[in-house]
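Quick board copy: two proteins, each given as sequence then tokens.
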Amino acid sequence: PLTFTSATTRIGLPLLFAGQSQKEFFVNQAMGILDALHCRAVVASRPAPPDAADDGDCFRVTAPTAGAWAGREHHLAVRIADAWHFVAPRPGMMLFDAEAGCLLAFNGDWVSADAP
């Protein structure tokens, strides 16, 4: 038989397993992550959580981290059900920072293209 880990390998979506209770929690969490990441954009880049964030808001975590984001440099922080969920970036991942107005790519660090 096939065996699965508890999350997908690329963006860490939670997987269901036979006999699991509260499956709706895991499905809803996965849908929240997909909803936040499908447009490949973040609200802004920040070292710490903003004072107010709406469900679905996605931020790029920058150093030096603080508060609930401590130790999560480079991750994407997604607000789901009034809690922060973190997605580790993968090489080649690209996103648009709406506040800075620039496209970023990840290859060990988030970098933006130089202006022509």
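And the next:
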Amino acid sequence: MNYIMFDDATRMDLLPLTFMRPLADIRVGIITIREKWEKMLGVETSTLTERYLNARFPLVKQKDNILINGSVCPTRELIKQIKALKPDQSLVSGDYIIALYVAEKELEGLVSDEGINEEDVEKLEMEHMTEIVCNAPHMKISNPWDIFSYNDEAIRSDFELLTAKKKCKKISETNRLIAPENIYVEEGVKMEYATINASDGPVYIGKDAEIMEGAMLRGPLAICDGAVIKMGAKIYGPTTIGPACKIGGELNNVVFFGNSNKAHDGFIGHSVIGEWCNLGADTNNSNLKNTYNEVRIWSYPQEKFIPTGKQFCGLIMGDHSKCGINTMFNTGTVVGVFANIFGHGFRRNFIPSFSWGSSVAGYTTYDIKKAIEVAEFVYKRRNRELDDLDKDILKSVYQMTFTYRKKRV
């Protein structure tokens, strides 16, 4: 069976985090949604996504195909129900599709080689499919704040998935461990004189990660491959530090996707930080209004601030965005991709993509050529290459986000 992860309308609600990736490549818990499905199904998946992302995330079509909603996290029971689908059947929950069994001929009519047409997906499900109602509990990421809100459950689930029948690597006796049975360390980890409390949830430390002296960690916590936790860091769960991130200061219920830095003091809480971001020394965000009221954040599809239903909600930052030292972010701030923020005072609660400036001096547009030059330099520091596919995606997002800059910059 050929499995394809598809984007539904949820993708718009999860902007700016989905400007640079399909839904399935969002990290929640220890690994991405796609990685969860692939590990549990035992196969590789392809992607049905927006046209400008299609070259980086191509679609593979075969005779028999099952399309899986990229915003839904798998469970054993959910996979059982999906594998039981027959041709022209769909698995649904409430008002959204979880999976569809589609023949190659129907898939050809559904999409072009350029990408997805969401209306056609819904039309196919309504006109040609027999609906099977899903009776398995599952997690769906529908809003940016769902990522940190569901991170506790996701870490626990991924911990079981990744550590089953595996033995933890030996941990140095210089470290202070509480509930060591809930701690799992992969190969190549460097860790001395750290304190880890896993009594409230598991702690996973990935391959070649480094935990420096004096770090204080509380589960549930995921520190992914190659991440570095600086000396004296204070990290409260449920938090995820994605691959190759460098983290210092204080975190509480934060998800870093990967390759991002918050290397110095400062507090970030109830937040989601994309890839290739850099937070300057003593960057702080508010995650609770001083009125204790519900937090509202910017919605891209509605083009207004909407209620989150959350009392705690901090910073949502898209890929490649950066801020200078002593930056302060208000409760419920949304920053697009490739924003460059500096200066004193609190930021606006919505900063469009490719914005350059401060709340005092004002914002201008970050020149796309200069933005790409910076990205190339940042990639080289990690022995990576910003190739033409990446550049084309950046140029597409630059054009797509012009309207927001025109209104706000």
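Board note added afterward: The mean pLDDT is 93.
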